[in-house]
Amino acid sequence: MSVLLAMTIGLLVAAGLYRLLGPGRLDAIVGLILLGQAVNLGIFAAGRLRHNAPAIVTEPMKPVTDPLPQALVLTAIVIGFGIIAFLLTLQTRSSGK
Amino acid sequence: MNPDLLILLALLSPFVGALGCFATLTRPRIAAGIALASVALSLAAGIGLVAACAGGSVHAVHAGGWSAPFGIVLVADLFSALMLAVCQLVTLAALATGIAVLPERWRRRHFLPLVLTLSTATCGAFLTGDLFNLYVWFEVLLLSSFALMAILRGDAGRSGAWRYVLLNLVSSMLFLGAAGLIYGKTGSLNFADLHLRFANASDPVLVESSTVLLFGSFAIKSALLPFAFWLPASYPHLPPAVAALFAGLLTKVGLYAMFRVFGMVFASESFPHRDLLLILAVATMVGGVLGAVSQGGMRGILSFHIISQVGYMAVALALFTPLAIAAGIFYLVHHIVVKANLYLVTGLVERHSGSSELENTGGLMRSAPWMAALFAVPALSLAGIPPLSGFFAKFMLLRASIETGGFWVTVAIVGVGLLTVFSMLKIWSAAFWSAPKTAEAKQKPSPTAVAASVVLAVVTLGLGLGAGSLFGLAETAASGLLEPQAYLDAVLGSGNPPAPTITAKP
Amino acid sequence: MTGVFLPALVPLLPLLVALFLPALVRRYPKASASGVAVLLGAAALWMLALVPGLEAVRISWPWVPQMGIDLALRMDPFTAWFAALVLGLGACVILHAGGYLAKSPQLPGVLAGLCGFTLAMLGVILADNLYLLFLFWEATSLLSFLLVGFHHEKEEVRAKASQALLVTLAGGACMLAGIVMIHSHFGTASIVDLLVRTGDGSANALSSGALLLFLLGALTKSAQWPFHFWLPNAMVGPAPVSAFLHSATMVKAGVFLLATLAPLLSAHPLWTPLLSACGVLTVVTAVLRGIRERDLKALLACTTLAALGFLTLLAGMGTPEALLGFTIFLTAHALYKAPLFLAAGNLEKAFGTRRIDELAGAAKCLPWTGVAFVISGLSLAGLGPLPGLLGKEYLLKATWVQSPWLAAAVAAAAAGVVGLGLKLLLPMLDWRRRPEPKVAVPWPMKLAPLLPVLGTLVLVISLPAANHHFLGAAAAALGAPEEAAYKFWHGWTPAFMLGMGALALAWGVFRVLSRPDHGPVPAPFLPLFEPIFEHALTALKQSAKGAGKWLQSGSPGMQIGLMLVPLGLIALGGLNAASWNPRGLESEGGVAVWLLLGPVLAVAAVVAAKARTTLTLLVSLGFVGMVVALWFLWFSAPDLALTQLMAETLLLFLLAGVLKKTGVEANRSPFSTGRALIALAGGVLVTGLVLKSMSLQWDKPISAFHIEFSKPAAFGANVVNVILVDFRALDTLGEILVLAIAAMGATAALGAARRRSPLPHESDSPWLGVAARGVAALTLPVALWLYWRGHNEPGGGFIAALVAATGAGLLLLIRDRRMNPIALRHASWKLCLAGLVVALVSSLLPLTVGKEFFAGLWWHHGDLHLGTPLLFDLGVFLTVLGFALGFLRHFQPNRPL
To answer: Are A41 and B180 in contact (CB under 8 A)?
Structure first.
């Protein structure tokens, strides 16, 4: 399973890179979106995968998915979102004027 | 004052200042006052931290009260403190100049809050003791600087800004990926903890495939060749006051990260990718200076010189002897001041002649000899002429390279130094010595801008004359990187290495 | 003890005056120059008075003690003697400059430059620490650049001054490297301490590279072959500057350093052959070049080159006899060269030309200048009992001891120099011609060349007395035998015979040369090195152009490729090197879910990469985002899944808005195999990296702590949220700062909407309006609920804010009039600000009660836990909402472009 997930991440990276290396600005933005997804999945996978584990700590303690990569990915999603949104907005300017 | 409070003051004062400026956008005078005061306060805190850390002691703030490595730590050692102080000094100078000379459009468009968030991010990057937190500050830094660039008009400027943000976002991706992979392998993000885990690892080579991503990320940030394309594309379009800020800060934060992460966190006898760094650094020195020679305007020349000088500092890290690291730290401190000042002087030239393209300037020696003097100080320092700070920086590096027996490195250090002279000479010949191209000065010099430049020139002179003391500090800072026991103690508590078992809250 | 150095500080005084009171200098040019000259002259006499009986002294203050850089000065009879020469000639030169440049507005600058130059040269002479010497060394290079470039509006002057600077600085840079090596070899950078090591054999072991580098500095400075070309070119400077440069300063710095270290370093096998060869070749070059010159100053420059060659030769031999010759040669040359140049300046001023043939007979018209010129010229040629003759005698004597053949060669070369001297002198004394001076020469210019001539005469007359106390003492301090004494007559020694032979030869040479019909003399050494230097510069500029172009061209995509490919290759190496075990991979969760989600993601990703139309792109990106969200959900990360879903939705909304507004086709570029290959390689590499990371874990991760203490210490069951708002709240603070900056930056870049856009129309369908308003009204309570439960259940400030923003988006869709741009901008601005303030306050509150930054303050009531982390989350909520509103405003349907 891990192998399959890793391959999927690789595929996302490939798609993102192809787009990123392209000539247009929109290409680059789409590439960054795809790469962002891949990196987020990668970080998440680095924290080991666990299916059907509780999302919150309970009594008695059951093993949960490593929460730290999740927090990191959450932060990364938000930051990436902010930056891409900003870039997109600027796109309206450069061709709008 | 309590060093812990100084750390918070240094970081939060520009943060609060940014909020203050953001809130008072419609009242430029108040906003300017807030901006200057907050950076000055942060500068004072930085100087206080240098004093507090001068003996080699390290101070840490455990955010949230969580013991390291579980929470985020803000750490001030001498290296951080020096970088912080000198960067805030340059920020203050550039900010004051910007307030005085930037066109209305810039001031209206959030110049002040963006500079302050930039400054916050710089301080955050210098103070953080956590890999992921460093990433967050990098993003704040990137977005602040890009938002400033986005104010630019014109196709060239906008395409430069685009290239800047795009290439730096690649750096962010690499950083993020590396942080994730490194956490996956080592299970930690804290610098001190990572250092110990890495040192205890059965096979340190295991981490090399992820550190190379980190290396690439920092290489882009610090503009090593072939990762520097964004710099010459964007900097020449910026108004000199903004370029001064960027030139002083951005690549240096990247270098700081390189020194901190590769020189300390992942370092033992050597560090990953050291040979690669040495090769790239020499290539950067040479390529950058050649690029500078090819340029015909002050802005372009200076932009390429940033790259070239980054090569010097990276060489210092790659040589990785105590002397070399100390030389590198000395170089960083010196270079930040000098490069920012050169841009400020470019601003003075542009205001006077209406342009800083060499073919459109001339006669400044006659019409504004004081400007010649203001240019000469940082230019000679950049070129490494004694007794200015740049001489000592280059000299120490030269000595370190001779001691390690690196023939080509030595040749490059000497040769690139000469080419630096050559391009400074080009500026001098064309802008100052040649016959005047315009009859009258276009605009009167702004007293604030002149004062800012004078202050930085005096600091350059002071760093040269006080090279003994500064070098003492640089040595202490370098040994703090190479033998980080004090750092580990301050972050992890003196009982380290901590058992990787879980400990309760303090 | 330190008092002996005081006269060396005298030039500082006028330097400061000229720098800070230029108006004063400009107002009284002659008086100020004369005043400075008197001051320096007095300092020279003071210094001279110190020479007899001076014990070697040294003072030192630490500067950068760790690197062996000290502010260390030394003085012995030789350095004092030389310093006195520098000060005295400086006085003459400044006196002259006061007249020569009386009308120039740049006089204050030149005075300051000359005083600075004097100071720098004194520094070179008196420095004990080699690094300090280097400092003054570079200062002389720079100051001579400024002085030579006096007429800097001329292109030619700038080029030649720059050439001189580059050559000398290049040498200086090499010398610095050499000094570092010498320092580390001998363990000291102090000249006095170095000389103590004389004869202990340590110099033999010095690496040849170090010696060569060191010598490069001295040889370039002293304009030795093959670096001699800059010196004649530096003639573009005004006469007093040339006089100073050629007599006592600048070029003398190099030979001074050579002679100073000769006793120690001449033990090295390379020293003598190298320096002798350079010296002799320099003389030959100078003579050959001088034969062709018709310009007075250029001819003088050639004689300087020749003299420097002899001095280098003497320093190269380094024997006590050679150093004895060195001292007298140096003194004699300084004393005759300065008046020659100053007189040349007078002639140029008076007659408006520097061509020798046009100046024939000029000596008669300017008698005082003529006297100075002729006496100095005689000294130069070694005709008559003048110091110049002494210099040549002792040169030949020292060389004869070394090797008779060398002595013969030197005699032949000297004959050439004498020939040049005759070429200078005889036309001046031409009785048949009498050119008319066009301009009167002011008295300071007449006086200035006479003073060194006076010095020459005094030296000759008082030779028996001066010998012991002054010259002899100086030479002895340099390394000549003790109790040495100079005298003209030594008997019929071989050296004397050689000298006589040389004189005869010189006369013959001169006769041949002065025939009007002789063609240009072939000069094999002349054109060689200057073109090499210039070609090197051109080549440099060419390659620079290439480098600059390479760094500034290419599409961003290509540049990213250039950056990533090398990194990928290295990362690949890292993968191979690792001995990681792929079987270490844990594998939870079935393959089934992958079979469900994997192909969808794969197809969507490939489609997104290739999508050509807007719709395909949006749909495929949407699929990618949704599948990633589902994946997060499957692997027990509901918070992530929610966030991903919300962020993805908004992002697609924005993307659609951009595409709609800009009308850009999604992908216009054709398929590229290269790109695809790089992309695939990158994908494979990342697969490997992820697998490797997943298979390795060295220690227990720090998150174990978070899981264990989330509930008991941070009062939250949702560990992810607790990490975000408590354990790693600082990250989140940075994160919301990013969002606020993005909102701010968008406003900054696009400009605030200053005019109210035309009042938006309500939606066409009233039912849609009602429905949308209803849903929008619901989003706020839902958002608040999500925020509230976030600490213990999936949710939290970020997700809550995005839910609330969706409500606002709905209102935008129906063109609700509350959603006008200005209102939105204000709301965005206020919410971002408020959010950041709340977050900051929550982080600072604990400080007021003496707890750590960001520490949680809690108030417990039964199961209810209220604390600052919740407040912080509220800050997150507000900021994110503000951010989202800000961006929605840019894409609202009714906003005009």
So the answer is: no
Question: Over the range B232-264, which residues count as b (16 or more CB within 10 Å of their CB) and which as e?
Answer: bbbbbbbbbbbbbbbbbbbbbbbbbbbbbbbbb
For residue B181, the distance in angstroms to the closest alpha carbon of chain C comes to: 6
Amino acid symbol at C680 = L
In chain C, which residue's Cα lies nearest the Cα of B128?
A: C730
Quote the pLDDT of residue C115: 92
- Residues of C with Cβ-Cβ distance to A56 under 8 angstroms: 717-719, 792-794
Are the C-beta atoms of residues C370 and C363 closer than 8 Å to each other?
yes
Burial tier of B274 (Cβ tally within 10 Å: 0-12, 13-18, 19+): middle
Work out the number of other CB atoms within 10 angstroms of the CB of residue C513: 16
Total residues found in chain B within this entry: 506
Whole-angstrom Cα distance, residue B364 to residue B441?
10
Q: Provide the 10 A C-beta neighbour count for residue C131.
A: 26
Q: What is the rounded CA–CA span in Å between residue B117 and residue C745?
A: 11
pLDDT (tens digit per residue) in C214-235: 999 999 998 888 888 888 888 8
Q: Are C291 and C251 in contact (CB under 8 A)?
A: no
The dihedral through the CA atoms of B238, B240, B242, B248 has a sign that is positive
Phi-psi region of A52 (alpha: psi -120 to 50; beta: other; left: phi over 0): left
pLDDT digits (tens, 9 = 90+) for B314-327: 999 999 999 999 99
| CB within 8 Å: B425 and C142 | no
pLDDT, tens digit, 9 for 90 and up, residues B61-80: 998 888 888 889 999 999 99
CB of C705 less than 8 A from some CB of B = yes
Helix (H, G, I), strand (E, B) or coil at B173: helix
Q: At what angle do helices B407-427 and C155-186 cross, to 10 degrees?
A: 150
Is A72's CB within 8 Å of B162's CB? no
C679 touching A (Cβ < 8 Å): yes
Query: How many A×C Cβ pairs under 8 Å?
Result: 302
Which of C4, C166, C594 is CA-nearest to residue B419? C166
Kindly state the average pLDDT of the residues B182-188. 86
Name the minimum distance, in Å, from the CA of B283 to any CA of chain C: 11
> Which has the minimum average pLDDT: A31-40, B217-226, C251-260, C815-824?
C815-824
Of B340, B337, B319, B310, nearest to B478 (Cα)? Answer: B319
Nearest CA in chain A to B180: A43
In three-state form (DSSP H/G/I as H, E/B as E, the rest C), the secondary structure along C229-255 is CHHHHHHHCCHHHHHHHHHCCCHHHHH
Mean pLDDT of C733-748: 88
Residues in chain B within 8 Å Cβ distance of C700: 187, 500-502
C555: left (phi over 0), alpha (psi -120 to 50) or beta: beta
Q: Residues B305, B292: contact at Cβ < 8 Å?
A: yes
| Among candidate residues C285, C123, C174, the one with its CA nearest the CA of residue B414 | C174
Note the pTM of the prediction, 2 decimals.
0.93
Q: What is the pLDDT of residues C438-488, one digit of tens each?
A: 888 888 888 999 999 999 999 888 888 777 788 888 888 888 887 777 888
pLDDT at C654: 83
pLDDT in tens, C235-272: 888 888 988 888 878 889 999 999 999 999 999 999 99
Lowest mean pLDDT across A51-65, C363-377, C411-425: A51-65
Q: Report pLDDT digits (tens) over C267-286.
A: 999 999 999 999 999 998 88
Angle subtended at Cα C307 by Cα C306 and Cα C312, rounded to the nearest 5 degrees: 95
Average pLDDT of the residues of chain C:
84
Q: What is the enclosing helix (H) or strand (E) of B74? A: strand B73-76
